[in-house]
Design brief:
With 175 residues, the chain is of the alpha/beta class. It is built from seven helices and five strands; from the N terminus they run H-E-H-E-H-H-H-E-H-H-E-E. It has one domain (2-174): NAD(P)-binding Rossmann-like Domain (Rossmann fold). 53% of the residues lie in helices and 13% in strands.
Length: 175
């Protein structure tokens, strides 16, 4: 599972960017939007590989944006936070965290609109939502130990019980 995260978040982004940049550079004006995450801005215990892969994506895009500064390609990177997807379930977050996330979730449609608007305005970094902007900035101002403790309290996995049916096939997940 951890290597799959690296494959999707790092290898796929590098491959797609490498494949399309030569084509985009030939255009009179081109736009490239890469997806990061607010987890890229601090260490995240229990989501270490995911957060580290997004930190790579953030650094890669900041660097590439500079390299493309005199080209026809405008590169933006999107760092969404809590969005109404199944990510929190796949990350196996605790029930209280799931309830908190629901209060702050943005819809995928609102994130997409903000992303596209920012892309065509030539914004470098697009962090949709006030709380997500805070999440991206605040860790810089607090001790690392505190940042890790807060992140750990949010992302510590919940206990999951898989119910199985005939021949051990999973039929439900509780937790």
């Amino acid at each position: 599972e951890q290597f799959g995260i690296i494959d999707v978040n790092i290898k796929a982004q590098l491959s797609i960017t490498h494949e399309f940049l030569p084509v985009l550079r030939k255009a009179e004006k081109a736009f490239l939007l890469n997806v990061c995450s607010t987890t890229a801005y601090q260490p995240v215990p229990y989501l270490a590989v995911y957060a580290a892969s997004k930190a790579f994506v953030l650094s890669f895009n900041k660097s590439l944006r500079y390299e493309l500064r005199n080209s026809s390609v405008s590169l933006s990177y999107l760092s969404p936070g809590s969005t109404d997807t199944d990510f929190v379930i796949r990350a196996r977050m605790k029930a209280h965290t799931l309830k908190q996330a629901e209060r702050f979730n943005m819809t995928p449609e609102s994130v997409a609109k903000i992303a596209v608007d920012g892309l065509f305005k030539g914004k470098e970094e697009i962090v949709p939502g006030f709380l997500n902007k805070l999440n991206a900035v605040l860790p810089k101002f607090f001790p690392l130990l505190l940042v890790r403790k807060i992140a750990a309290s949010i992302y510590e996995p919940r206990e999951v019980v898989i119910e199985t049916g005939v021949r051990g096939v999973p039929v439900a997940e509780k937790g």
